[in-house]
Amino acid sequence: MSGNADALKKAAAEAAMQYIEDGTVVGVGTGSTVNFFIDALAERKHDIEGAVSSSEASTERLKSHGIEVLELNSVVEVPIYVDGADEITEHGQMIKGGGGALTREKIIAAVARKFVCVADESKMVGRLGQFPVPVEVIPMARSYVAREIVKLGGDPVWRQGFTTDNGNWILDVHNFDIMEPMKLEAELNNIVGVVTNGLFAQRGADIALIAREDGVQTLK
Ligand code: 5RP
């Protein structure tokens, strides 16, 4: 990753700080862009109630900064969720899960009132699908789910050697022709053995902060 790409990620992540309100719980995603957000959040740690985290990795980083990490089950409201994306359209639909944290990310996104996506311009696409769609599966269902995915037109590849924070496995699905992201998201979720999939179309981002060379663009 070049220093310039990191600078763009940092700029997008820091722009999300304007949406953080004192006394509230902050939903925190996963990934290299979110890591910059966590670092920035550390400076506001005494102002917020705490964070809910989408991965063990983010939890560790939050705690290393002394930011309180709360159990999602003990929290009633998550006004804001900040996370990155592997691909995002101008309508806020995304592919996520490159880091394998898609299930917990989707859960917090579902709870959150507002989803703020932070990304550098390389993540913006006209149509989703260049990046393989991650699908989290119960391990014993891996082969069955892969066969069902082939029927849907995708080419699943097992992310070997990787286990999710939930103890499951990931199939990265290449070559999907994603004309209707919401429909495909539902079809994938309908396969028995699928925990969740990395299409965030039904619940996309409400705000996207896209860092470009000439500044951070806000898409709503
Ligand atoms: C992790 C994710 C990340 O948000 C996505 O992979 C983007 O990561 P990065 O900011 O490192 O490019 O969905 O599961």
| DSSP strand tally | 13
- Percentage of residues in strands: 25-35%
Q: Residue-averaged pLDDT, rounded?
A: 97
Shape: globular
Please, what is the oligomeric state?
single chain
The poorly predicted ranges are: none
Order of helices and strands: HEHEHEEEHEEHEEHEEEE
Measure the end-to-end span: 28 Å
The residue fraction in helices comes out at 25-40%
Kindly report the spatial arrangement of strands forming the biggest sheet: 2-1-3-6-12-13
Each distinct ligand: ribulose-5-phosphate
Number of helices: 6
Cα-atom radius of gyration: 17 Å
What is the SS-derived class?
alpha/beta
Q: Can you summarize the main beta sheet?
A: 6 strands, mixed
Explain what this protein looks like in three dimensions.
The chain is of the alpha/beta class. Helix content is 28%, strand content 25%. The protein has 6 helices and 13 strands. The protein has a 6-stranded mixed sheet, sandwiched between helices. A hairpin with a 5-residue loop joins strand 4 and strand 5. The longest helix is centred in the N-terminal third of the chain and has 13 residues, at 3-15. The radius of gyration is 17 Å and the shape is globular. The two termini are 28 Å apart. Bound molecules: ribulose-5-phosphate.
